[in-house]
Every structure is written in structure tokens, then in C-alpha cells.
């Protein structure tokens, strides 16, 4: 842990390559747009937001969308909850985790309180992603197989590193902050199997823990510098010592983990996305209607099946986001899968529900051998007239090997925001975060932009 802490504390924003900073800008823009829609669509956020507004507290950091200032750690959790509410935030397949919703809320809350520059915000996002995702990469899939939710457990470490960087802590203080983040690790996968709408609680809590950890370290609190490797340390507890050391500390300064994140184009669990890509292509090639389908056969890896392969006819939007069968049927019917497809009327559409019963998903153990380098799917769509379409893809669109372009970002964010906000909201947000030089804008510009459009 000391090696990581020393590296992060000594890194200057000018040390980070320009392409890495550019990726951080797009990650930030993506998070902010997803948060704005999460505010409108979340199951959990209204409850948390009402709770914190009632409690109140010291006015340190703005809760975007609410336009109220609350203690930084409270604000961080609120934005983390909203940001993870619609399953459209970014992710990292080697770490099976979602970095933006843990790291960025903590970063923004502390940055506003401290008056940090936009350049420092971007650098701290890069640092936070790196600490979180190196940790997650090192311990998975063992960690996940034990039932942990990596976004929550590793997110508190990344959020702590990001906030410590903004506070300009010493190498030793950085180590203490990361350690305290690790001591607060929490999150279980069981929420996927009953009331998955509670899932955003875990990244929100990770963001909160990051703020608390960095603040305590800045005040003089100390924690075990043997957090990872100690006899009763994090690695033993979280993966029973089954970890890759090089994934954790190798190539520091050369392998920036933010560059290995993926962008989500569909509002479902990532394990659905390769199958959705295939279904969209099948729709183009077969030019068919749902009534023409005889059956759909899908093969995927074990983890994908466990998380999204067991619900064909979801009862609500939260379950639908974890149903590969329903997502595939949507893509076959409409040629795409968007957030607007997860309305009650659509979920109760008997045509879709009947078609979803024709989807059969099995585990292909040969895919398990390639996981996580590949998280793909194979699909065969068979029609009643005898025609069929068959295709396999190793990774979904949005992965580092199959990256999105700015046009893809823009299409995603515009379509997602359109029902809730005017076009000017997207255009202004993109210009502030992506289209401007980092030294020409501030986080205050973002706060004011949200204040103008988000109510």
C-alpha cells in the first residue's frame, strides 16, 4: 500500500498524459449526465435526498440536482446514489466495478469545499480511478465469487485516494487515507436477487467513506499501513489471498486504469451488453417482428448467467435492468435498448413478455476460460419461416478494444437527457467539461449550470 500511496501523493497533474486527462473529462461528463437523469428516475435517491435535507448540516458542498449545500461527505453519498440509479455509469470489466459513482461524487464534494482547480479535479479523478481499479483488478474474480460488490468494497479506496490527492496530503497521510478507505469497504451482491433498487446505496456509501477517510487523515488520524498485505488485512479478508500483485502495483505511471474502463450505451447490467449488440445486428439482418421469432438461444459465461440470465419476465424496472432475456427482446423489437424502454407500460407489454419466454440462456464454460479478457455472448435467433441469424462477440461496444467515439457519447447523453431536460442542458454541460481548456473553467460553472436547468 505504501508504494501506491507514495506514487499518488507525488504525482503532479502535469505528469498525467494528455489522453488520460481527456478520458477523465469524458468520464466526468458521462457521470454528470447520468446523475441528472438518476435524480429523476431513481427508486432510492428520493428517500436519501429527503433524509439528508431533513437532517441538514454544515454548508460545504452542493448536492447537484438538489441545489442545497450540505456536509461534503453527505453530498458525496447523495450524488453517488443518484449516479448509480439507472445502470448507465461507466465500468471496468477486469475489476467488475463501476468507478465513476464512487470516485467522482467524493471528488466533486471535496473540490467544491476546498476551492480546487478544474485541473486538480481531473487529476484526482484519474488517481481515484487508478487506486480503485488496480485494487479491483488484483482481487477479481475471486472477490466477486465470494459475493462482494466490488464497486462498494473497492470504491471506498479509490474515493479516499482521490480526496487525499485534492487535499494535497503527504505520502504518509495518503497511505493512512487509503487504509481508512479500505477499513470501510462494504457491499454484497445479494441485492441483485431481491430489490436491486437498493444497489446505489453501496457506491454512495463508498463515496462518503472516501471523504471521511481523507478528512480524518488530514486531521492526524492514522491507520494500518499494512492494510492490503497484513495478517488480518484486506487481501486475506476479501479474496483469501488470491490476488495478482502486478495488477495491484505494476506499471505505475504507465498503466492508468481509467483508460481500461468501458462506456455503457444501454441501461442494463454490463453482462447484457454483448447480447444486446448481437440482437441489434440480428434485427437489421433478419428484418423481423417479435411474432416471427420461434426461439432465441444465448450462451454466455457463468458470471453473466448468474447475474442477468435468470429473469425472463421482470416485475419492475430494477429487475429489467438485470434481465438479459428482456433486453434482447427489446433490441429485437426496437433495434435498440434505451432508458425510455424501461417504463411500466413497456414492462407490461404482453408481446414483449411472450417473446422473452422464447429466450433460452445457457452457460458456455469455454467462455469462462476467457473471462475477464472476454465478456461476450453467442446468440442464434431462429424464425418460424426457417431463417436464422447466428453471431458471437467477445466484448461489447464501449470496451477499450471496441471504444466509443465522441459521437457515441453525444448520442447516448442526448437521448438519455432529452425527455427530462432541454437540449441546452446537454450542450452547455459538454462544452464546460469536454469542450473547454481545463484552466478556463471551474467546478462552479458546473454547479451553476445544474442550478439553471435541474429542478
Properties at a glance:
455 residues; alpha+beta; 4-stranded mixed beta sheet; two-stranded antiparallel sheet; 22 helices; 54% helix; 7% strand
Structural overview:
The protein is α+β, with helices and mostly antiparallel strands and about 450 residues long. It is built from 22 helices and 6 strands. The strands form 2 sheets. The protein has a 4-stranded mixed beta sheet. Helix 4 runs antiparallel to helix 5 and helix 5 packs parallel to helix 8. The longest helix is centred in the N-terminal third of the chain and has 24 residues. The protein starts with a helix and ends with a helix. The model has no long low-confidence stretch (mean pLDDT about 95).
What is the secondary structure topology, with strand pairs?
Elements: H1 2-10, H2 18-41, H3 45-55, E1 61-63, E2 68-70, H4 72-83, H5 100-114, H6 118-139, H7 142-145, H8 150-166, H9 171-183, H10 201-219, H11 234-239, H12 245-249, H13 273-286, E3 293-300, H14 302-308, H15 317-320, H16 324-334, H17 344-347, H18 350-356, E4 359-363, H19 365-368, E5 377-383, E6 388-393, H20 406-417, H21 423-435, H22 443-453
Helix pairs in contact: 1-9, 2-4, 2-6, 2-20, 2-21, 3-4, 4-5, 4-10, 5-6, 5-8, 5-10, 6-8, 8-9, 8-10, 9-10, 13-16, 16-18, 21-22
